[in-house]
Write a structure and sequence with these properties.
The chain is mainly beta. The chain is 12% helix and 42% strand.
Length: 163
């Protein structure tokens, strides 16, 4: 309920938010503007990555403690026959960098249950990469510390916004 699009518009419901991410921002929030989305840390992106070809879309809010962070993440990697949408267990926004952690949801074997930590940077050029962790505590610790050593992938299309 605390998510907003890149223009600060709220979402009427979860489906409105999922539509925003799935259409790579072409369906903005239909609710009223919530004010300044930068007040608690905000990151969004819709990027295509290469080697291997992947897509990553996200709208995230760092609300302080990991338990209160919110967002939605969609990822696909066609060569691994992997595509899912999930929510973060941690979001850490600092300057132009955001870290976020989550578990790959059930139904995506053999990857289900894998804890992933992404590091995205809003810069010229933007960058995105991830690492894995053994469990939720480890993933959230990496995320909150902002210390992930990640494998970066070339961004071939899209944009990352970190506020």
């Amino acid at each position: 309920m605390n998510l907003v699009d890149a223009n600060g518009n709220t979402f009427k419901n979860q489906g409105d938010c999922v539509s925003y991410v799935a259409t790579k921002g072409r369906n903005p929030g239909a609710g009223p503007a919530s004010g300044n989305p930068t007040s608690t840390g905000f990151a969004s992106g819709n990027v295509a990555l290469s080697d291997p070809d992947q897509t990553l879309s996200f709208v995230l809010h760092d609300n302080g403690a990991s338990a209160t962070d919110t967002g939605i993440i969609s990822y696909s990697n066609p060569s691994a026959t992997l595509a899912y949408t999930t929510t973060p267990t941690c979001v850490n926004v600092s300057g132009s960098t955001a870290y976020f952690a989550y578990v790959i949801p059930p139904g995506h074997d053999p990857y289900s249950g894998t804890w992933v930590v992404w590091k995205v940077v809003d810069n010229s050029p933007d960058s995105a990469g991830f690492t894995t962790a053994p469990d939720m505590a480890g993933a959230n610790a990496i995320c909150e510390a902002g210390s992930a050593s990640v494998t970066n992938y070339s961004i071939t299309a899209g944009d990352i916004i970190v506020l």
